[in-house]
Task: inverse folding
């Protein structure tokens, strides 16, 4: 009987631990996705400003 109780307790604790690990991994993944989204947005804004500055400096390239 003691073996059954110990085995059941370890089984339940294992599932709780696994749930915690999975939850932590998902949280970190979502944080990484958000960070990469912000970096991509910032890179796009920098590219637009760089293009705008280049066109102001070299207006003859615009066919306009």
Result:
């Amino acid at each position: 009987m003691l073996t059954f109780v110990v085995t059941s307790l370890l089984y339940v604790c294992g599932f709780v631990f696994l749930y915690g690990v999975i939850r932590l991994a998902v949280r970190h993944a979502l944080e990484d996705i958000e960070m990469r989204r912000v970096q991509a947005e910032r890179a796009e804004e920098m590219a637009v400003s760089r293009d705008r500055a280049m066109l102001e400096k070299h207006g003859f390239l615009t066919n306009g």
